[in-house]
């Protein structure tokens, strides 16, 4: 991955070409992307600005995964990677938490034996 990214609009916080070498790469389920980045990636510019990194998404054709490539200084890349992994995990577990809450609510509403 020693090549420069295809993207033309490099954020000002990313120092080219030094910060464009050795990017951090993580894989995320494609179905989580909209929850993480908003419709059509609308939150990506904000995340880049706050994290001081540049993000590039690459859909892997052979699976349901997408690579998130993070460019920036060493510490900024690590922080952004940790944040993105945490966001992905939170969104992945969200439906599970919803089902658990629903089960708890249904148990709380169960009718007593005299009402059956």
Summarize the structure.
The protein has about 120 residues and is of the alpha+beta class. Helix content is about 40%, strand content about 15%. β2 (about 55-60) and β3 form a beta hairpin.
Q: Tags for this entry?
A:
116 residues; alpha+beta; Ribosomal Protein S8, Chain: A, domain 1; three-stranded antiparallel beta sheet; elongated
Q: What is the residue-mean pLDDT, rounded to a whole number?
A: 82
Give the radius of gyration. 20 Å
CATH homology group: K Homology domain, type 1
Distance between the termini: 65 Å
Structural class: alpha+beta
Share in helix? 40-55%
Shape: elongated
Note poorly predicted spans.
Answer: 1-5
């Amino acid at each position: 991955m020693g090549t420069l990214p295809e993207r033309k609009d490099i954020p000002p916080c990313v120092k080219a070409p030094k910060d464009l070498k050795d990017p951090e790469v993580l894989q995320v389920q494609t179905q989580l992307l909209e929850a993480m980045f908003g419709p059509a990636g609308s939150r990506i510019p904000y995340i880049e600005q706050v994290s001081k990194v540049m993000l590039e998404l690459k859909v892997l054709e052979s699976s349901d995964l997408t690579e998130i490539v993070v460019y920036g200084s060493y510490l900024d890349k690590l922080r952004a990677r940790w944040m993105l992994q945490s966001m992905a995990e939170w969104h992945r577990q969200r439906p599970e938490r919803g089902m658990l809450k629903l089960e708890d609510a249904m148990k709380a509403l169960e009718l007593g034996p005299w009402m059956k």
